[in-house]
């Protein structure tokens, strides 16, 4: 098989945008995704509504429509499927990248698909658009490996009439706590800070604060879980140790990009900020021919890049790749 001009690792909105921009420039590109198309969005809460408007989620110059001012998860999934189909992107779903070897203009990408079959692709350039939603930040306490501990919140129904602890105080934790409460769970919010995060959206924050004020949702601030047991959790609070009855724990304290994988393939990180070192204009890393797109450009600072601005990375990268490959063929 002739080498691809580029391989895009990840088929989220940013990965799709990269694939589109490369294809529009006449380049041969394949996208490899370890889950389904827009895998991270698929794993968002079922009833999630985006904090932004449809036009800020658009890629490939295809309009996005929504019944309301802000689109929901279902509308976004449908939109990105439609975009992928429109551009006839070559997407290999449920295939995980195991290794990247070779050098600029002669890369070798090894993968394993869902059936355990191994594949080898060759490519002139590689774009990493792997996001950050796959590795949850851990509490690192005894009992965190119990089945009742969850790092992703999907929907509230299974937790009706259960004692549920939500750890965290940003948007995802606040929304989960409210939905669980509205569905009939007995909710306790636990946060190591002094209050609900100021980053919680303005229409959510008063709601969660009022539920806490009335005692409908119990909250422990300046506190942290120190042990998780089968039927309880142990907290360290300003008033001392507290033992709470508990059926489920949602540890919603954020997620991290796979920096270990980046290091393993030769993408260097700034020791102070943990940001991958990239050319700000082209987004090429210090490993020639390897580009970064989307939130992983920010390293651990995952709140700096979202779909709204990460979707433009495809244009920067595709422009540079097209120019370099054109020069190579002369």
Plain-language structure description:
- It contains 8 helices and 17 strands.
- The protein is α/β, with parallel strands linked by helices.
- The protein has 2 domains: 4-134 and 255-329, FAD/NAD(P)-binding domain (3-Layer(bba) Sandwich); 138-251, FAD/NAD(P)-binding domain (3-Layer(bba) Sandwich).
- The strands form 4 sheets. Strands 1, 2, 3, 4, 5, 6 and 17 form a 7-stranded mixed beta sheet that branches. It has a 5-stranded parallel beta sheet with strand order 8-15-9-10-11, with helices on one face.
- The longest helix has 17 residues, at 313-329.
- It starts with a strand and ends with a helix.
Topology:
Elements: E1 4-9, H1 13-24, E2 29-32, H2 39-42, H3 73-86, E3 91-92, E4 95-103, E5 106-113, E6 118-128, E7 135-136, E8 149-150, E9 163-167, H4 171-182, E10 186-190, H5 205-213, E11 218-220, E12 224-228, E13 232-237, E14 240-245, E15 248-251, E16 255-256, H6 259-264, E17 290-292, H7 307-310, H8 313-329
Parallel strand pairs: 1-2, 1-6, 2-3, 6-17, 8-15, 9-10, 9-15, 10-11
Antiparallel strand pairs: 4-5, 5-6, 7-16, 12-13, 13-14
Helix pairs in contact: 1-8, 4-5
Primary descriptors:
single chain; 330 residues; alpha/beta; FAD/NAD(P)-binding domain; 2 domains; five-stranded parallel beta sheet; 8 helices
Oligomer: single chain
Structural class: alpha/beta
Cα shape? elongated
Give the mean pLDDT.
93
Assigned CATH architecture of the largest domain: 3-Layer(bba) Sandwich
Output the helix-strand order. EHEHHEEEEEEEHEHEEEEEEHEHH
Q: How far is it from the N-terminal to the C-terminal residue, by CA?
A: 22 Å
- Using the CA coordinates, give the radius of gyration: 22 Å
Percentage of residues in DSSP E strands? 25-35%
The CATH topology assignment of the largest domain is FAD/NAD(P)-binding domain
Q: Helix fraction?
A: 10-25%
- Number of helical elements: 8
The CATH superfamily of the largest domain appears as FAD/NAD(P)-binding domain
Low-pLDDT regions:
none
Count of distinct structural domains: 2
Class of the largest domain in CATH? Answer: Alpha Beta
- Give the strand tally: 17
Largest sheet: 7 strands, mixed
């Amino acid at each position: 098989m002739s080498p691809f001009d580029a391989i895009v690792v990840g088929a989220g909105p940013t990965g799709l945008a990269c694939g589109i921009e490369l294809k529009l420039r006449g380049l041969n590109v394949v996208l490899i995704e370890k889950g389904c198309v827009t895998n991270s969005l698929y794993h968002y809460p079922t009833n999630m509504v985006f904090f932004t408007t449809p036009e800020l989620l658009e890629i490939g110059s295809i309009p996005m429509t929504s019944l309301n001012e802000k689109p929901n998860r279902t509308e976004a999934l449908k939109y990105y499927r439609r975009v992928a189909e429109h551009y006839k992107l070559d997407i290999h779903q449920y295939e995980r990248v195991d290794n990247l070897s070779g050098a600029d203009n002669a890369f070798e990408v090894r993968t394993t698909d869902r059936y355990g079959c191994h594949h080898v692709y060759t490519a002139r350039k590689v774009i990493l658009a792997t996001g950050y939603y796959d590795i949850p930040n851990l509490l690192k306490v005894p009992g965190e490996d119990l089945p009742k501990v969850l790092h992703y919140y999907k929907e509230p129904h299974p937790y009706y009439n259960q004692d549920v602890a939500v750890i965290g105080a940003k948007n995802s934790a606040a929304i989960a706590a409210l939905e669980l409460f509205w569905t009939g769970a007995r909710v306790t919010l636990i946060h190591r800070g002094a209050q609900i995060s100021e980053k919680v959206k303005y229409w959510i924050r008063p709601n969660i604060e009022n539920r806490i004020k009335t005692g409908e949702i119990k909250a422990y601030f300046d506190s942290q879980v120190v042990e998780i047991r089968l039927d309880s959790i142990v907290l360290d609070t300003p008033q001392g140790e507290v033992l709470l009855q508990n059926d489920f724990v949602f540890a919603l304290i954020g997620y991290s990009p796979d920096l270990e994988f980046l290091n393993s393939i030769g993408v260097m990180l700034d020791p102070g900020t943990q940001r991958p070192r990239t050319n700000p204009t082209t987004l090429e890393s210090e490993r020639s021919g390897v580009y970064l797109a989307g939130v992983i450009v920010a390293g651990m600072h995952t709140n700096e890049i979202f779909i709204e601005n990460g979707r433009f990375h495809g244009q920067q990268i595709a422009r540079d790749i097209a120019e370099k490959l054109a020069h190579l063929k002369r």
